[in-house]
Amino acid sequence: MKDYKQIKHGFVILAEHSADAYFMELAGGLKQIIKRGYAGVYVNSQRPFNNLSSMLKRHKVDTKKLVFIDFTASLEKFKYSKNERYIRIAPSIGFEHLSLAIRESLLKLKSKKKFVFLDSITTLQLYDISEKVLYRFYEFLMDTARKGQSTLILNVSQGMAKKPFIRDLAFFVDMQIS
Amino acid sequence: MAIKIMAVDDEENILRLVKDTLEEDGCKVVTASSGDEALAKLRKDKVDLVLLDFFMPEMSGREVAEEIRKDKKLKNLKLAFLTVAQFGRSGIAHLKRLKIADYIKKPFDIDDLKRRVKKIAG
């Protein structure tokens, strides 16, 4: 079990998960953070939202403490008008809208301790965007954390941690959990 | 003799601002808009300090710094990063490993930039 006891509000955390137990480890961490009084924005670029939702429930994650931003290329039709805690941003609309949605979602959260949970860095990179846009996005997220508006949790599968871009991000991290 | 600085950034307006500010202060400033261009220029011409943007496409500031530290002729160059986000606690160890003299947060205060450049390069 990965240990999130040392996290502090405003930290930037890089959480590496083994490829074969990726979701189990991620959900375990999420549960710990929520138990510590945090509420957060879950940015999903990994899997269809319906799958994600049921997987989190199966792992007993309190999803009421989360606002979901769905940033997948999936074409599923989710009736988000009935769910205030679900925002759909098509990747084709772009990262500026995603940044805006994260900022607004953080404001909506009632808890004093807030986090942004990125699942995952590697899948966000798969979208056809310039490196410059991606860098600006991470600078926005890290700057938001530094201003004390959230804790930032960057999830990545272990094999990917040596990729140049993730090695760059490691410079801005306060705590690495692996 | 004037301090010679190289500013490396993919943002043209940042390069212009750094160049104008430091030249006004008596420094000589050469610029490069990518890591490759910076390394090519550094291998031809000596400078006292390199101000290096961290997040650049193609070759990041970290990669440029690593190349400089591997190069026999360049390895002792003074380096400082320009960055929007503040480095983290774990990041400080990485900065030490690369012998980064300082980092300057963007957007920067002009007087602070002049003062810190003089302190590092002087």
Strand content of chain A: 15-25%
Based on secondary structure, the structural category of chain A is alpha/beta
Helix percent of chain A reads 25-40%
Strand content of chain B: 15-25%
Show unreliable segments of chain A: none
Shape of chain A: globular
Radius of gyration of chain A, CA atoms, in whole angstroms: 15 Å
**Whole-Å distance between the termini of chain A?**
10 Å
Instruction: Provide a count of the helices of chain A.
Output: 6
- Biggest sheet of chain B: strands side by side, in what order? 2-1-3-4-5
Helix content of chain B: 40-55%
Number-wise, the strands of chain A total 7
Please identify the oligomeric state.
heterodimer
Topology order of chain A in helix (H) and strand (E) letters? EHEHEEHEHHEHE
What would you say this structure looks like, in words?
The complex is a heterodimer of chains A (178) and B (122). Chain A has helices at residues 22-35, 49-58, 95-108, 121-124, 131-146, 164-169, and strands spanning 12-17, 38-44, 66-70, 86-88, 113-119, 151-157, 175-177. By secondary structure, chain A is an alpha/beta fold. In chain A, strands 4-3-2-5-6-1-7 form a seven-stranded parallel sheet, with helices on both faces. In chain A, strand 2 (38-44), helix 2 (49-58) and strand 3 (66-70) form a beta-alpha-beta unit. The N and C termini of chain A lie close together (10 Å). The mean pLDDT of chain A is 90. Chain B is an alpha/beta fold and 122 residues long. A five-stranded parallel sheet of chain B has the order 2-1-3-4-5, with helices on both faces. The longest helix of chain B has 13 residues, at 12-24. The radius of gyration of chain B is 13 Å and the shape is globular. Classes of the chains: A alpha/beta (178), B alpha/beta (122).
